[in-house]
């Protein structure tokens, strides 16, 4: 990272001269920062307040949310000020810290996305061995590795000058610019480790997940309507397309220009183009809470519970309690009124209907293990296989039949 002597020549051309455009841009950047911070705060609150979300699977979701939250609080405000003022006003020491934080948090965010894809791949392709493959120790090692790689490519590399084109890591501060300097080796290594290899593996894993989801949708085609199976397959396609599409659209332009700068020189890319692709990458941190949390059914329920309780404090407290009880285990939420339960009509995957006996729980009747596996692969894509195995013993006797 190094401010350039030649940056003065292009500063006036790339700097914003139109007041109206500057105001519009400031509003857009402020909204993006607020969405990034608020969305990831909600993810952290949902996991903290809902016990069902405290699982090994969601450790990577929480790690991703914390990383993106730190990016929104520690990096994006300074990036916005720098972008709008067209000059760096915080000194060369903080310039090094700012760039290091930027590289570290963006790298950690991408590697968390990569680990989420690996976790889902293990859950969908080998659900029976998932509790053995994904253990607390391995999750801890994965999270530590993410941050070790991120710190190595950011603070350590910049402090030692591995990214610089000269012998020092400090720049010529003759112009008020704070620009990340990239040489050939650092550009190739960082681009390969941070983006291109994870992208390749994510494409393979999500393609395999999609194939399994489509096969499951076709497998149940003979027991459900053709339209229902088509809808499930369509939802699977849309979900995976959104996940991979957002990742590629947000980060591919940035890392392409990043590697090109390393090969051709720091001034090879126009500053306006650099700013656009950089903020496009930042936008991925605002989309992650939607793509990796809100698309999951348990997270959606937790969001509803969280906001319901906020609103119930102003209105009906009874409504909030009723919704909370619906999310609690049945032994906790329905024990007081168990004697008043009426026979419930339960829909099973085979297409037949069964009437539960008097006093049965109202837990959805799903035959293990194939039925909930279809539900996993087609609807949620956030694996809950370990949780499902833990609850197999609690399935009513009438459900413990072949699907």
From TrEMBL:
The chain crosses the membrane at residues 20-47, 59-85, 97-118, 139-162, 185-209, 236-256, 276-295. This is Histamine H2 receptor. GO terms for biological process: chemical synaptic transmission; G protein-coupled receptor signaling pathway, coupled to cyclic nucleotide second messenger; gastric acid secretion; positive regulation of vasoconstriction. The lineage of its organism: Eukaryota, Metazoa, Chordata, Craniata, Vertebrata. GO terms for molecular function: G protein-coupled serotonin receptor activity; histamine receptor activity; neurotransmitter receptor activity. It is a multi-pass membrane protein. The keyword Repeat does not apply. Keywords: Cell membrane, Disulfide bond, G-protein coupled receptor, Glycoprotein, Lipoprotein, Membrane, Palmitate, Receptor, Transducer, Transmembrane, Transmembrane helix. Coiled coil: none annotated. It is found in: Cell membrane. GO terms for cellular component: dendrite; plasma membrane; synapse.
